[in-house]
């Protein structure tokens, strides 16, 4: 028995608040032959070594790992009369851990398909869908009877027969449009339309299908949760949310039925920075500020094209992903596919990452995120996009995110579908990298906030369309920005530039040039009142033949508009895709432009910032008489492309933190490395020097 874990969890075991002490998770996803190959005791030892206080275990759906009696519920052919799921549940409970059963309803075997062909998804040509990776089985329709009638029986059996706290569903949301007769009929009844044949955001039928799917999935969450609670009132159904910032669901109903959120972003792939882990935490808080959120980390590499699911990543990569998520408030969860452990190199980095979380857990509990800067999470725009195209739709936001990380500035997200006046009033500056679709009500709320003194930085084609993606004649935020749209967004274009225009803080730091790279999607605007134009467009000119590559006209037309508002704030409008261009090209001039615009719009020195020769992902939190500055060291040749081989320590990073009202001094403790950090106070600012940061450090500043 692990007394330390039992002490942590004893007050909430088998209560409605059980999830509040479920803060470090082990997930084991079994392979079909595991019942005769794996060692359950080895996994109980791993629970101990990683200091996990909760576990998610393979139970049923595609394959049952317990002796299920639900008709057509396929039971592993290697079971041989035993009950691996039950054995693991008992072992975890003996350690005082919380337990969640994992189900996966995305595929079925031949006997179920023969008995219920309506359970099988259908492609656009009318063919039942065989599984893309294992053609012996069939992909299920997520929107019909399989999930609404069959799977609730599996869920009820698990909750009735086993000592568990929740049922967790993976791959339950479907795989694109299903063209089965049931979906055709239900969609037509709900909308009067036939199923869409494209996933284009411009297709109104596709947008209608996205809304219909959102409604179906939300009701499914409710139905499964009701089925759980009817048998075990303290328990819940927990859907795997992905990294979609909850944009696919009815938020009021999710709030009622999901006490915590699980994000299935298991690691980096392609050119993703490590800060992607922590970004998930900010996006969850953007919708539900105080709800616990969990980040799943795979112990193997995450590459969608090249898949090695039963593999092991480099230790430094695994630990960095866990730690960056934890530094931004995500509860750590690791997942291992296959109960057999031929390669044990993942265990130590998981244990180290979990230990760091345990070290900072009390500080996270005693503080809340506190920043002056917020990026708008543009759910109203992104939910119109198919999942496969959503990352490109997020490019502008990703560019702004990376620019602020490079600037050493902490910031949060605000979801446009959950924002309130009170939420906006917590921030001095709101950034809209490319919130194309905004409702009239959302525009009015932001405009009123600017009228109360808030500062606004808007880029790209933000507010050019309403909430249903219908084009507007004028910008929805035009009045707040003091600009008028004189030309519709256009692009992609090549070989564009913007020219410096006069002396303004936004155009500082570009010595030696009169122009910088422009964007690929441009919009024409002009100020409607007194405003400065720190940058002008250089009118388009050809990029070939090379002899024709020269400008024909002098710079004209506002490429950046900056103004002071009557309420005491500032607004900046950049009517081109500076964020997306920076994300794709990583030109230093664009980082400088974004940082300059942010610092000018703030009007004062940031409350917290970090300077030094390094790339540090910064988070700031506040509690009673305390500020916690969370630092993840991203200075690494593998920062943008994993896997990380090792961390590279950096030295002498300086935190500048504004003294709270009534305070004149401070002490600073280093929670990860231990010891004190030197503090000097100059005027209203404390300067804290962090001597060295390996992967991460948390600086706890106690004000006096």
From TrEMBL:
Lineage top rank: taxon: Bacteria
SUPFAM superfamilies from the UniProt entry: (Trans)glycosidases, Class I glutamine amidotransferase-like
CDD domains registered for this protein in UniProt: A4_beta-galactosidase_middle_domain
PANTHER family listed in its UniProt record: GLYCOSYL HYDROLASE DIGH
Protein name: Uncharacterized protein
Organism: Pelagovum pacificum
Lineage: Bacteria, Pseudomonadati, Pseudomonadota, Alphaproteobacteria, Rhodobacterales
